[in-house]
Automatic annotation (TrEMBL):
PANTHER family given in the database record: SULFITE OXIDASE, MITOCHONDRIAL, SULFITE REDUCTASE
UniProt superkingdom: Eukaryota
Gene3D superfamilies: 2.60.40.650, 3.30.70.260, Cytochrome b5-like heme/steroid binding domain, Oxidoreductase, molybdopterin-binding domain
SUPFAM superfamilies: ACT-like, Cytochrome b5-like heme/steroid binding domain, E set domains, Oxidoreductase molybdopterin-binding domain
GO (cellular component) term, any one: mitochondrial intermembrane space
GO molecular function, a single term: heme binding
KW Transmembrane (keyword) present: no
GO BP term (any one): sulfur compound metabolic process
Enzyme nomenclature, EC number: 1.8.3.1
Locations listed in the record: Mitochondrion intermembrane space
Pathway note: Energy metabolism; sulfur metabolism; Sulfur metabolism
Name of the molecule in the record: Sulfite oxidase
Length: 619
C-alpha cells in the first residue's frame, strides 16, 4: 500500500528529539480558530459555531502539566544485514530485559540494512533509566552487527507542537497524549489538505469530535499512530461526557444498515429496497459528513448571491409563496456506492457501502433556475458577461459543493430547492428546511441544509469538490505525490448502474427457474433501455422486463427503474452453485463493465461493474 511506502520514509527520517515547554495557552488559540470557523458558517442560526463553543469548553489543559521525565523510551536498532525473524528475536530479548513493548515497527530497508524501532517502557510504566537503556542496548547488540541507540521517548509541550505548522518546520499535531508529525501525510489526506491544515500545530481532538469518521471506523487511527513522534506533556483533560455535537441528531430507523453514527452513514437494506418505488423517508439512505444542524424553519434564511446576481435573502415562506411548487422524482446515489466490491481487490478509503447507498423520493420545492433568474437576476446575458461557470451550495453543516451553470439553469435540468420529500415536510435528517436536489448527479452535490447559493466563476472549495474525496483516479494511482488533484475534474453525472436485489447471495433455489429482481439507474437522466441477466457468466443472457419507472421521460429519467426476469436453470447447472449477474444499458447505449479490477481507484468511487450474486440450485 501507498501508505506503507510513505510510512517507511517517515520512519527512515526519524527526527526524534526532545524539548521542554510550558502548559499551552488556550486563551491564545481560541479566538483565532473560533473566528475562522464562524466566518465559514452561515447566518442566522448556524450550529457550527455552537459546536465549536461546546468543543472548546471541554478542551482544557491539565493544570500544571509540563514536560518532565519521559514516560517511555525509543530504541533504534540499526543492523547491517537484516534477516527473517530478527524482529521477533529482538522482541524476545527485550522481554527478557523486563521491559513492556508499546510498539514495534519494522523499518526502512536499504539493501540488506534495516532499522528496527521499539517503543518501550519500564515494568512500572515509566521511561527506562540511563543504566537500563545501556543494558538493553548491550543485549540487543549481541543479536546482529550494527548499532543500537536507546533514548528517552520525547515529550513535547503544546507550545512546542504549535511551532510546527509549516512544511519547512514540519507539520505536527497532537491527539490525546501523543504528538504526530503529519508533514508528508497532508497531501494524501482523504479529507483534503485545507481541512487537515486547520489543525496544524494544534490538537486534533476537537476536530475529530466533529469528524468522528476518523475514530468510528476505517484506518485513520492506525495511520495516525504510524506518525507518532512522541508524547504530549500537557494533554487536554478528559472532556465532559455531555459534550457531543451529535447529541441532537435525530432518532434513526433501526432497519438501516449503519456504517457510522457520528456522522451518520447508513444504507438502505436490500430487503426493503424494492418494497416501493419511492423509498419511505425513515429508511432512506443517510450520508452525512457532520452532525445534523438543528434549525427552526421560522429562522431559516437562504442567501442567493455571487457574480451576475443581485443578492437576495429568502425565508421558507418566500420560497413557498413566491414560486410555483414543482415536483421531481429522483434517485440519489452516493459516489461510493458498491465500494465494498472494490475493497475486495485492494482496500480503498471510505465507507464500505454495499449497493444500498441509493434511494428514491418525490421531491417538492422550487426550481433553482427560477429563483436564480427571476429573483436574483441571473439572466443568460449576465452569465456570459460575468463569466459565471458554477453555482455553489453552502450547507449549514459546513458542506460545500457546486454544479456547472449549464445544469443549474437548464430548463430540462430540474434542479430543485426542495422543502418536501415524498409529500411530507423535508425531515431534518435529509436537509430541512431546504436542500438542493440535482437530479442525475452524484449524491454529494445535493447539498442538505442549504444556507447560501453563490453564482461563481470558480468551483466550490473544499475536499468534496476540489479535493480528492470525489475524484476518480486510474487503478495505477496508489499515492498522490506529484498529482495535482485540483486539476482532475470532480464527479458529476454517474455511470449506468444496476444490481440484483433478489435472490440474495447464498440463497438456495429449488425451482427450474431463478426469479431475479433488481433496479437500474443511470446518471444525467439517461433512461434504462434494457437489463440483461445471465447465470452462465455471460455466455447467454435473458432480457429482463422493466417495471416501475420504465415510463419516465427518456432523457429526464431521474429515478431508478425496477426490473425482473425469470431465468431457466439449464440441466448442466441443476444441483450446482452458480452466479446470477446483471448489467443495464442506458439511453446513451452505455453499459456496465464486466469486471471490477479495471475500475479500482484510490477512493473507491463509481463501482458499476456487472453485479454478481452467487447462489445454489437444489434438485
Ligand atoms: C491528522 C491526522 C488525520 C488523519 C490520519 C486523517 C485521516 C483520514 C482518513 C483515513 C479519512 C477517510 C475516512 C473515510 O471516509 O473512511 C479522512 C477523511 C476526512 N478527514 Fe481526516 N485525518 C486527519 C485529520 C483531519 C483533521 C484535523 C480534519 C478536520 C479539520 C479532518 C477532516 C476530514 C474530513 C472532512 C474527511 C472527509 C470525511 C467525509 O467525506 O465524510 N481530518 N481523514
Amino acid at each position: 500500500m501507498a501508505y506503507a511506502r510513505w510510512l517507511a520514509g517517515r520512519i527512515a527520517r526519524g527526527g526524534w528529539g526532545s524539548s521542554g515547554g510550558s502548559a499551552r495557552s488556550l486563551a491564545r488559540l481560541r479566538p483565532r480558530w473560533h473566528a475562522r470557523a464562524c466566518a465559514a458558517a452561515l447566518p442566522p442560526a448556524i450550529l457550527a459555531c455552537q459546536y465549536l463553543d461546546r468543543r472548546w469548553s471541554s478542551c482544557e489543559t491539565s493544570a500544571g502539566a509540563g514536560s518532565g521525565s519521559s514516560s517511555s523510551s525509543i530504541i533504534r536498532f540499526r543492523v547491517d544485514v537484516d534477516r527473517p525473524g530478527l524482529l521477533s528475536e529482538a522482541t524476545e530479548v527485550l522481554k527478557k530485559q523486563e521491559v513492556n513493548i508499546r510498539d514495534a515497527r519494522i523499518s526502512t530497508k536499504q539493501g540488506t540494512k534495516a532499522t528496527h524501532i521499539y517503543l518501550v517502557e519500564d515494568r512500572n510504566g515509566g521511561g527506562l533509566s540511563e543504566d537500563r537503556l545501556a543494558q538493553v542496548r548491550g543485549a540487543l547488540g549481541q543479536l546482529a552487527e550494527g548499532s543500537c541507540e536507546a533514548a528517552p521517548w520525547p515529550r513535547y509541550s503544546s507550545e512546542e507542537v504549535l511551532k510546527h505548522q509549516t512544511a519547512e518546520n514540519g507539520i505536527w499535531v497532537s491527539y490525546k497524549d501523543g504528538v504526530y508529525d503529519i508533514t508528508d501525510f497532508v497531501q494524501n489526506h482523504p479529507g483534503g489538505k485545507d481541512k487537515i491544515m486547520l489543525a496544524a500545530g494544534k490538537a486534533i481532538d476537537p476536530f475529530w469530535r466533529i469528524y468522528q469518521q476518523h475514530t468510528g471506523r476505517g484506518n485513520a487511527l492506525e495511520l495516525l499512530e504510524s506518525m507518532r513522534i512522541g508524547d504530549l506533556s500537557d494533554p487536554p483533560a478528559a472532556r465532559a461526557s455531555c459534550d457531543c455535537p451529535y447529541d441532537s441528531d435525530p432518532e434513526r430507523h433501526p432497519g438501516l444498515i449503519f456504517h457510522n453514527n457520528k456522522p451518520c452513514n447508513a444504507e438502505l437494506p436490500s430487503e426493503l429496497m424494492m418494497d416501493s418505488w419511492l423509498t419511505p423517508n425513515p429508511v432512506w439512505f443517510i450520508r452525512h459528513h457532520h452532525p445534523v444542524p438543528v434549525m427552526d424553519p421560522e429562522d431559516y434564511r437562504l442567501c442567493i448571491e455571487g457574480v451576475g446576481t443581485k443578492a437576495v435573502t429568502l425565508c421558507l415562506e418566500d420560497l413557498k409563496k413566491r414560486f410555483l411548487k414543482r415536483e421531481v422524482c429522483a434517485t440519489l446515489q452516493c459516489g461510493g456506492n458498491r465500494r465494498s466490491e472494490l475493497d475486495q481487490i485492494e482496500k480503498t478509503s471510505g465507507i464500505p457501502w454495499g449497493f444500498g447507498a441509493m434511494s428514491t423520493a418525490r421531491w417538492g420545492g422550487v426550481y433553482l433556475r427560477e429563483v436564480l433568474q427571476h429573483c436574483a437576476g441571473l439572466s443568460h446575458e449576465n452569465v456570459e458577461a460575468f463569466d459565471v461557470k458554477h453555482v455553489i451550495f453552502k450547507g449549514m453543516d459546513g458542506m460545500e459543493a457546486s454544479i456547472p451553470i449549464e445544469k443549474a439553469l437548464s430548463p430540462y435540468g430540474d434542479v430543485l430547492l426542495a422543502y418536501e420529500m415524498n409529500g411530507e415536510a423535508l425531515p431534518s435528517e435529509h436537509g430541512a428546511p431546504v436542500r438542493v436536489i440535482v437530479p442525475g448527479v452524484v449524491g454529494v452535490r445535493n447539498v442538505k441544509w442549504v444556507g447560501r447559493v453563490v453564482a461563481s466563476t470558480e468551483e466550490a472549495e473544499g475536499p468534496w469538490q476540489r479535493g480528492l474525496a470525489y475524484k476518480g483516479f486510474s487503478p495505477m494511482v496508489k499515492e498522490l505525490q506529484g498529482i495535482d488533484v485540483e486539476k482532475i475534474p470532480s464527479m458529476h453525472e454517474l455511470p449506468v448502474q444496476s444490481a440484483i436485489v433478489s435472490p440474495k447471495a447464498g440463497s438456495i433455489i429449488e425451482l427450474d427457474d431463478v426469479e431475479v429482481k433488481g433496479f437500474a439507474w443511470s446518471g444525467g437522466g439517461r433512461g434504462i433501455v434494457r437489463v440483461d441477466v445471465s447465470i452462465d457468466e455471460g455466455k447467454t443472457w435473458v432480457t429482463a422486463e422493466l417495471t416501475n419507472g420504465k415510463d419516465q421521460d427518456y432523457n429526464r429519467a431521474w429515478a431508478w427503474t425496477f426490473w425482473e426476469a425469470s431465468v431457466p436453470v439449464p440441466e448442466e447447472l441443476q444441483g450446482k452453485e452458480f452466479t446470477v449477474l446483471c448489467r443495464a444499458v442506458d439511453a446513451a447505449y452505455s453499459t456496465q463493465p464486466e469486471r471490477p479490477e479495471p475500475l479500482w481507484n484510490l477512493r473507491g468511487l463509481n463501482c458499476n461493474c456487472w453485479h454478481r450474486v452467487p447462489i445454489r440450485h437444489q434438485e
